[in-house]
Amino acid sequence: MTLGTVIMTGAAGRIGSAVREALREEAGRLVLLDRVPLRAQAPNEEVRAVDLLDAKAVEVALAGADAVLHLGGVSDEAPLPDLLEGNVLGTHHVLEAARRIGGVRVVLASSNRVTGFHPAAHHIGPRDPVRPDGLYGVSKVAVEALGRLYADKFGLSVICLRIGSFEREPSEPRHLSTWLSPRDAVGYFRAALAAPPTPGFAAVYAVSANSRRFWELPEASVLDYTPVDDAEEYAARVSGAPFPADDSTPQAGRFAEPGFTLRHIRP
Ligand code: NAI
Ligand code: 15L
Q1: pLDDT digit string (tens) for 132-160?
Q2: C-alpha of residue 247 to centroid of ligand 1, in Å
Q3: Known catalytic residue: 150?
Q4: Which residue's CA is the closest to the ligand 1 atom numbered 28?
Q5: Domains in the chain, please, with CATH?
């Protein structure tokens, strides 16, 4: 099945670089956007240098899209103005371009960090309240809210993937709960991009089938993908103090510590 014309923002980043090969196998045309230079690696790939803060450039770059995978932005804790620009304004430009084109499936890269302050003892799902673990998490809450607004008000088809910890393999104890393997990332992205662009909104966790996971897997009626990898297979190789230290430890671990955010706030 072809996904048609897929636009991927943030294509030069860690996730984009790792998943482009698999996605181009299924896309008629894969258009890769980033503000840093990229090189096409296949006949059906196109690359464009686009700054997400440039609304007109984003609109031009999305022309002809059947689906958009929006990965671009600030991917961890940072000063709030940077997060508001890169994540909130950047996402606004992507959604606005999709609204003008119409009939586009939009997949937004949200993060598990929108709920990072829930205690590790809680098994949670998308219906639980947000509890961001920092300013980055707050910006992703806003990203999700924009997606919902554009679905409710303008009839867009938006799915937010609350990505866990995307890593080649788990490298620290927390990853035994939060890992998203490259294979499962491709599975989630493919399923989200392939769903018909019927108006509506959903937010789901994109995490591997980790025995110790904190989060509900998506209901098949919302997103038709069942993850296959389990971080447990790597547990013997992962060193460090066990995580969580106790049941009240935030799921985000060290990201939830005050100092992790305070270093981005001017004294
Ligand atoms: P990354 O930081 O490696 O890549 C982000 C890309 O966005 C970079 O190539 C950067 O040049 C581009 N970008 C940033 N600002 C831009 C702008 N104004 N205009 C154009 N391009 C811009 O991030 P990564 O790890 O690949 O993550 C991709 C997305 O997934 C991000 O939105 C991140 O917040 C989200 N995510 C990632 C997780 C992970 O484990 N890697 C976990 C949860 C969410
Ligand atoms: C994220 O959202 C970040 O982009 C990534 O760098 C990791 O920190 C990940 O969450 C995580 O929760 O491990």
Answers
A1: 999 999 999 999 999 999 999 999 999 99
A2: 31
A3: no
A4: 71
A5: 5-262 (3.40.50.720)
Q: Residue 211: phi, psi to the nearest 5?
A: -55, -30
In angstroms, the Cα distances linking 90 to 36, 140, 194 are 15, 12, 23
Tokens standing for residue 202? 């959903």
Pocket of ligand 1 (CB under 6 A): 10, 12-16, 34-36, 51-53, 71-73, 75, 86, 90, 109, 111, 163, 165-166
* Residue 220 CB coordination number (10 Å): 10
* pLDDT tens string 206-257: 999 999 999 999 999 999 999 999 999 999 999 999 999 999 999 999 999 9
CA distances from 102 to 38, 95, 106, 150, 157 (A): 27, 10, 11, 11, 10
Residues with CB under 6 A from ligand 2: 75-76, 111-113, 165, 178
pTM for this entry: 0.98
**DSSP state letter for 73:** S
| 15 C-alpha to ligand 1 centroid (Å) | 7
From the CA of 85, the nearest ligand is 1
Separation of alpha carbons 149 and 154, rounded Å:
8
